[in-house]
């Protein structure tokens, strides 16, 4: 499988992903991270958060899925790194919070490996991931 043809500076079409409280409960069960800040409003506020927040690793996983979908194959994603800069607050309603993912091509190596600078913007318009980099290589 080959990666899409890109050049340094190209922007990857973005995607908006909704995150609901139900998603947080499913992720908590799958990951074993049952910290109540991810499902209980009172606990989240009591520890100084603005409300229930999405798991940072869930946000990272959604960003990695965005990259894997662009690459056309999850095996093409050779590495993904990021820092968590701001939580995604998820309201207790049917819509939840929306996270907007995008990426810009940062480098294209001679072997076809592509490095993407990935962005993730929360519902307040501020970035929720920092220094997010993904390296994708075509399968050989």
From TrEMBL:
* InterPro entries noted in UniProt: Fatty_acid_synthase, HotDog_dom_sf, MaoC-like_dom
- Which CDD domains does this UniProt record tie to the protein? SAV4209_like
Superkingdom field: Bacteria
Entry-linked Pfam families:
MaoC_dehydratas
Give start and end of each MaoC-like domain. 15-119
Q: Which PANTHER family match?
A: (3R)-HYDROXYACYL-ACP DEHYDRATASE SUBUNIT HADB, 3-HYDROXYACYL-THIOESTER DEHYDRATASE HTDX-RELATED
Family membership: Belongs to the enoyl-CoA hydratase/isomerase family.
Q: What is this protein called?
A: MaoC family dehydratase
Q: Which organism is it from?
A: Actinomycetospora endophytica
Lineage of origin: Bacteria, Bacillati, Actinomycetota, Actinomycetes, Pseudonocardiales
């Amino acid at each position: 499988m080959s990666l899409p043809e890109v050049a340094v500076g190209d922007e990857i079409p973005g995607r908006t992903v909704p995150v609901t409280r139900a998603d947080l409960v499913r992720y908590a069960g799958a990951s074993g991270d049952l910290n109540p800040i991810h499902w209980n409003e009172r606990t989240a506020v009591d520890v100084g958060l603005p409300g229930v927040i999405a798991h940072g690793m869930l946000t990272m996983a959604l960003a990695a899925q965005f990259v894997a979908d662009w690459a056309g194959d999850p095996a093409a994603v050779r590495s993904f790194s990021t820092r968590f800069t701001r939580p995604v607050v998820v309201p207790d309603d049917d819509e939840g919070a929306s996270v907007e993912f995008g990426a810009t091509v940062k480098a294209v190596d001679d072997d076809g490996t592509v490095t993407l600078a990935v962005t993730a913007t929360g519902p307040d318009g501020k970035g929720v991931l920092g220094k997010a980099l993904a390296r994708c290589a075509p399968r050989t």
